C-alpha cells in the first residue's frame, strides 16, 4: 500500500527481531491440555500477535483498526496473528457473534491460517489451565477467597490517594483457601457469594493492584463449555494467560488497559515461578483507540440502536459495524487504506469522518463502473425529435465504463424523444450562475434572453423552450428542442458551446429502481461525549428512499456491485434487498466531502 508509515509498534517489533528476543522461547503447559495444543508448532523467531474480540456483538470500525494493525504487523514481519475469542463472560456472548466476527475478519482480507496451522482460538478452551493456575496461586499464597459482600469489597478498595483496607478473609491459610475455592467450583456457594482475589497490595497507588478479583461464581450456560463451569475467570486474569499460552510476543491493546499492565506482568511472573509458564513472557503495548466523528463505537450503544429499532439491524448501512459498512458499499481495501492513513499513536484524538470517506473515494474512483441515474426524475420532451429523426426512432449512445481505464470498455444506451432528467436541472427563473435548463427570459426592462442550451451528457445539445404543469402547479414535463449536429463524439459536435452538461436516462430503456439515500446517523460530531445522550442527536433524515431511473447497463447489476452514478456519488446494489427484477441501490457516499460543512 502507498502509505506504510513507521510507528512505535513497528519500531518495537523491529528492535525485538534484531535482538532475537523471541529466538529461544520454550513454554510450559502439559500435553493433553487444550492450552498446550494452542501453542502450535514451535516457531521461535516469529512475532505472534492476536486480535481478541469478545463475542458479545458485531465488530465495528474501531475493531477494524485493531484488526488491520495486528494482522497487518504479522503480515509485514512474517509472523502470525491469532483470531481469539475472549469468551469469559457467558451471559453476554453468543455463537451468532462468533460467526459474524469470523466473517468480518475474513471479509476485511485477513486470515489466521499460516503454515498449515489454523490460529483460531477461544479463551474458554483454556478454562482447565486457568483453573489449575488459580489453584497454584492459592497454594502459593498469592490468592484468597474473599467472602465480603460486593458493597464491602467496593468500600474497602479505597480510592485514588486513599489506600484500601485488607479484607478480613485475607489471612486465611492456603489450605483453607484451596478448600473454599474448590467449593466455589463445585457449586456449593451462591452466585456472588465469594470471589477469588489475587493477593497483592491493598495500598498500591494503582487500584488495579489492590487484590483484583480473578474468579467469580456465575451459573450461566456458556456457548462453548455449556454448564461445565459455574465459576468463570475475570478478563484481567484470563487475558494474560491466553496470550502466554498462545506464545503471543506483542499483546497490543487500547490505552485504557495501561493501568492493567502491572497486573498482567505480575500474574505471568507468578505463573513462571510456579513452572506453569516460562520466559520470555508476552509484553503488553497500548495504542490509542479509534474515535471517529459522528460515530459511536460502544457495542452496548450500538446494540441499543438495534434493539430499539432506530436502525434496521446490525448491518443497517448507517451502522459503523463492519457488516454495516460493507452493506453501505465500503470495500475492504478502503478500510485497510483508512487504517494505514490514520496510523497508530499513543495519545487519544478524533479522526474526522471525511478521512474514512476519502479512503473510500480513492479506492472506488479507480475501479467503480460509471453509470447515469436520475434520482428525482422529471420528463424532458424533445419536441422536434420526430421532425428531425422520425417518430419512434432511437439514437445509440455510449460512454466509457471507467474513464481511468479504457480497457474496461464502454456501456450502451439510447437517446430518444423522451428522457428522464433531474427535476433540479430545470429552473423557470434561473438564479445567478445557473447554467442548466431554463426557458426564454424577459427581464424587467423588457430585454429578452433565449432558452438555455445544455448538453445531455454523451448525447446531444438541446435548447429549453418551457415546461408543462399540472393543476397543482407541479412541473410534469420540461420541453426542449434538439440542436442538430451536436451529438457527442461526432465531427463538429463542439461547435455549439454550452456551459451546462446534465445527466439523463432514456424513458424507453430506463431501469426503475429504489435508491436509498443515506446521511450521517448523528448530527453531532461527538454524539456520546461528555455525558450526552447519543439518542438526542440522531439525525431524523438519515435515510431517504427515492424511486429513481437508472441507465440500462444497470439491469444486469448483481448484489454488492459498486458504481459511480455520475454527478451523484458512489452506490452499491444492496446485498440484502437487491434483485435484478427489483433493483435496490444504497448511496455509499457523495462525490465530494460534505462533512464539517
Ligand atoms: P466494547 O467496550 O464496546 O464492548 P471492546 O473494546 O470491549 O468494545 P472487544 O471485543 O473487547 O471490544 O475488542 C476487541 C479488540 O478490539 C480489543 O483488543 C480492543 O482493544 C480493540 N478495539 C475495540 N474498540 C476499538 C477502537 N475504537 N479502536 C481501536 N481498537 C479497538
Ligand atoms: Mg472488551
Ligand atoms: Mg470494552
TrEMBL record:
Residue intervals of the Glutamyl/glutaminyl-tRNA synthetase class Ib catalytic domain: 47-350
Broad class of the protein's primary localization: cytoplasm
A single MF term (Gene Ontology): ligase activity
Residues reported to bind L-glutamine: 86, 235
Similarity section: Belongs to the class-I aminoacyl-tRNA synthetase family.
Catalytic activity: tRNA(Gln) + L-glutamine + ATP = L-glutaminyl-tRNA(Gln) + AMP + diphosphate
Coiled coil (residue ranges): none
Protein's gene: glnS
Motif 'KMSKS' region: where in chain: 296-300
Protein name: Glutamine--tRNA ligase
Keyword Cytoplasm recorded: yes
Sequence positions that bind ATP: 54-56, 254, 289-290
Record keywords: Aminoacyl-tRNA synthetase, ATP-binding, Cytoplasm, Ligase, Nucleotide-binding, Protein biosynthesis
EC number: 6.1.1.18
Subcellular location: Cytoplasm
Domain annotation Glutamyl/glutaminyl-tRNA synthetase class Ib anti-codon binding: ranges: 368-482
Residue span of region Disordered: 23-45, 431-452, 577-597
Annotated tRNA synthetases class I (E and Q) anti-codon binding domain residues: 501-574
Entries under Gene3D superfamilies matching the protein: HUPs, Ribosomal Protein L25, Chain P
Organism of provenance: Pseudorhodoferax aquiterrae
NCBIfam families: glnS, PRK14703.1
The keyword ATP-binding is assigned to this record: yes
Quaternary structure and interacting proteins, as annotated: Monomer.
Amino acid at each position: 500500500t502507498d502509505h506504510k508509515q513507521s510507528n512505535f509498534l513497528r519500531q518495537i517489533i523491529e528492535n525485538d527481531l534484531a535482538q532475537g528476543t523471541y529466538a529461544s522461547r520454550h513454554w510450559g503447559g502439559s500435553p493433553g491440555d487444550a492450552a498446550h495444543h494452542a501453542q502450535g508448532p514451535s516457531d521461535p523467531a516469529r512475532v505472534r500477535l492476536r486480535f481478541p474480540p469478545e463475542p458479545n456483538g458485531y465488530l465495528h470500525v474501531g475493531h477494524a483498526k485493531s484488526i488491520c494493525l495486528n494482522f497487518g504487523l504479522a503480515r509485514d514481519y512474517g509472523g502470525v496473528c491469532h483470531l481469539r475469542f475472549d469468551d469469559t463472560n457467558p451471559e453476554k456472548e453468543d455463537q451468532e457473534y462468533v460467526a459474524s466476527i469470523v466473517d468480518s475478519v475474513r471479509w476485511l482480507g485477513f486470515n489466521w491460517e499460516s503454515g498449515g496451522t489454523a490460529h483460531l482460538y477461544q479463551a474458554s478452551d483454556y478454562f482447565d489451565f486457568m483453573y489449575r493456575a488459580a489453584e497454584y496461586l492459592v497454594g502459593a499464597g498469592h490468592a484468597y477467597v474473599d467472602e465480603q459482600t460486593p458493597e464491602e469489597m467496593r468500600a474497602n478498595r479505597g480510592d485514588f490517594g486513599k489506600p484500601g483496607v485488607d479484607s478480613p478473609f485475607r489471612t486465611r491459610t492456603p489450605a483453607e483457601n484451596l478448600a473454599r475455592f474448590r467449593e466455589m467450583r463445585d457449586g456449593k456457594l451462591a452466585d456472588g457469594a465469594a470471589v477469588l482475589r489475587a493477593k497483592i497490595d491493598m495500598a498500591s497507588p494503582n487500584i488495579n493492584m489492590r487484590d483484583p478479583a480473578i474468579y467469580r461464581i456465575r451459573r450461566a450456560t456458556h456457548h462453548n463449555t455449556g454448564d461445565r463451569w459455574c465459576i468463570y475467570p475475570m478478563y484481567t486474569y484470563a487475558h494474560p494467560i491466553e496470550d502466554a499460552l498462545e506464545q503471543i510476543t506483542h499483546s497490543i491493546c487500547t490505552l485504557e488497559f495501561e493501568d492493567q499492565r502491572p497486573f498482567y506482568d505480575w500474574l505471568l511472573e507468578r505463573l513462571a515461578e510456579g513452572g506453569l509458564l516460562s520466559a520470555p513472557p508476552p509484553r503488553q503495548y497500548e495504542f490509542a483507540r479509534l474515535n471517529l466523528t459522528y460515530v459511536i463505537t460502544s457495542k452496548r450503544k450500538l446494540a441499543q440502536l438495534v434493539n430499539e429499532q432506530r436502525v434496521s439491524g446490525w448491518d443497517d448501512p448507517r451502522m459503523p459495524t463492519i457488516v454495516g459498512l460493507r452493506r453501505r458499499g465500503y470495500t475492504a481495501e478502503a478500510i485497510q487504506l483508512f487504517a494505514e492513513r490514520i496510523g497508530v499513536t499513543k495519545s487519544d484524538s478524533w479522526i474526522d469522518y471525511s478521512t474514512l470517506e476519502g479512503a473510500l473515494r480513492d479506492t472506488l474512483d479507480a475501479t467503480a463502473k460509471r453509470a447515469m441515474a436520475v434520482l428525482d426524475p422529471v420528463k424532458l420532451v424533445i419536441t422536434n425529435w420526430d421532425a428531425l429523426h422520425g417518430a419512434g426512432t432511437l439514437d445509440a449512445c455510449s460512454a466509457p465504463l471507467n474513464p481511468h481505464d479504457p480497457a474496461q470498455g464502454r456501456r450502451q444506451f439510447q437517446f430518444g424523444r423522451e428522457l428522464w432528467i433531474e427535476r433540479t436541472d430545470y429552473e423557470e427563473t434561473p438564479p445567478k450562475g445557473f447554467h442548466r435548463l431554463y426557458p426564454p427570459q424577459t427581464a424587467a426592462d423588457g430585454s429578452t434572453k433565449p432558452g438555455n442550451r445544455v448538453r445531455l451528457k454523451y448525447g446531444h445539445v438541446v435548447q429549453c423552450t418551457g415546461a408543462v404543469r399540472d393543476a397543482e402547479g407541479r412541473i410534469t414535463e420540461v420541453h426542449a428542442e434538439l440542436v442538430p449536429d451536436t451529438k457527442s463524439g461526432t465531427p463538429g459536435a463542439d461547435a455549439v458551446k454550452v456551459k451546462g452538461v446534465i445527466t439523463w436516462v432514456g424513458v424507453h430503456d430506463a431501469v426503475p429502481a429504489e435508491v436509498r439515500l443515506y446521511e450521517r446517523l448523528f448530527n453531532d460530531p461527538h454524539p456520546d461525549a461528555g455525558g450526552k445522550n447519543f439518542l438526542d442527536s440522531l439525525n431524523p433524515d438519515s435515510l431517504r428512499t427515492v424511486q429513481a431511473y437508472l441507465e440500462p447497463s444497470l439491469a444486469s447489476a448483481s448484489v454488492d456491485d459498486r458504481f459511480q452514478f455520475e454527478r451523484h456519488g458512489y452506490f452499491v446494489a444492496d446485498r440484502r434487498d437487491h434483485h435484478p427484477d427489483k433493483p435496490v441501490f444504497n448511496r455509499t457516499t457523495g462525490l465530494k466531502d460534505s462533512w464539517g460543512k
